[in-house]
Amino acid sequence: MVSPAIELSGLTKYYGDVRGIEDLTLTVERGEVFGFLGPNGAGKSTAIRALLGFLRPTSGEVTLLGKRVADRHELVEVKHELGHIPGDFAFYDSLSGRRHLDYYESLRGGERRAELEALFPAPFDRKVGTYSRGNRQKLAIVQAFMHDPTLVVMDEPTSGLDPLVQRTFYEFLEAERERGVTVLFSSHILSEVRRVCDRVAVIRNGRLVAVEDIDTLLRKSGKVVRATLTEHPPIETFDLPGVVRGEYESKGVLKLIVNGGYDELLDRLSSYTVEDIEIREASLEDVFMHFYTDRDDGVTENERSEGDTERRERDGDDALPAESTDA
Ligand SMILES: Nc1ncnc2c1ncn2[C@@H]1O[C@H](COP(=O)(O)OP(=O)(O)OP(=O)(O)O)[C@@H](O)[C@H]1O
């Protein structure tokens, strides 16, 4: 039987007494494009660094392509089948992109280098110190895929890429999936995860809140309806089937999270004077607020588990940052 691409079992990492991740257990099958989705500070980078063996976990185990990461020899064996894009790549600023790629090619091979250089062109002959964020990221993509790895793990790979290059990258990932490559990447951008992932692990405060297939995530996340009314009817007026939550943002400006049909809502709205209406995809913040918390205080069932209260008070609760590039 073929081993899964990634298996995490109770993976936990504390930095002193600061929780990075706690008790992550999940399996990524071969050929999946799998997302780690969570707000800043959720623990995505910690999980990625621990699963690749860059961080020694406090407890728990990881296997990649059936090899135990904690075993040095097994880790070395699996490395040539791995590609990796770290959150912040430590390039040598005084060396050119080409010199970097020559070096990686000498270590791991580069049978796809020319193809990738053409797809993600950067000023390869210039020193990396002069590169923009986007060019550094393109160099990171080329090095991660050029030896044709079986499994690629990436920490927020599209950060710094302009929208056109992002699109090229998404299309490239789709083609890689067709070729059977397994990809795990972290993101705080819901639309990106929706577009390319088969399944998603939702991570919050270092814990796994849910593992969803993408259709479930889409169904759960729903839409946001924002309507500006001349009137200001009581919020209970919109307590209708399909309306998950409603609030007034200001007088007459209604925000509803909807993940059912719209008929009854439109019918109800038509009793009032609608000055403006907007329907958009829910943002990551909306999804976390409304679907992955159990109470209005934004604390999940997991976080309320015994012994955790003190730590939570110390770490502070996670005010979710707005998404930067999610349309
Ligand atoms: N080297 C470190 N020392 C101490 N605490 C750390 C360290 N690295 C991360 N942390 C803490 O661990 C928690 C998880 O951080 P992590 O960087 O893994 O989250 P993330 O989801 O990748 O966030 P981001 O998107 O901002 O990188 C945070 O509370 C963070 O402050």
UniProtKB/TrEMBL annotation:
InterPro entries: AAA+_ATPase, ABC_transporter-like_ATP-bd, P-loop_NTPase. Residues 295-327 are annotated as: Disordered. Residues 318-327 have a biased composition (Acidic residues). Keywords: ATP-binding, Nucleotide-binding, Transport. Residues 6-230 form the ABC transporter domain. It holds the Pfam family ABC_tran. GO terms for molecular function: ATP binding; ATP hydrolysis activity. Residues 295-317 have a biased composition (Basic and acidic residues). The keyword Transport applies. It comes from the Archaea. PANTHER family: ABC TRANSPORTER, ATP-BINDING PROTEIN. Belongs to the ABC transporter superfamily. This is ABC-2 type transport system ATP-binding protein. It comes from Halogranum rubrum. The lineage of its organism: Archaea, Methanobacteriati, Methanobacteriota, Stenosarchaea group, Halobacteria.
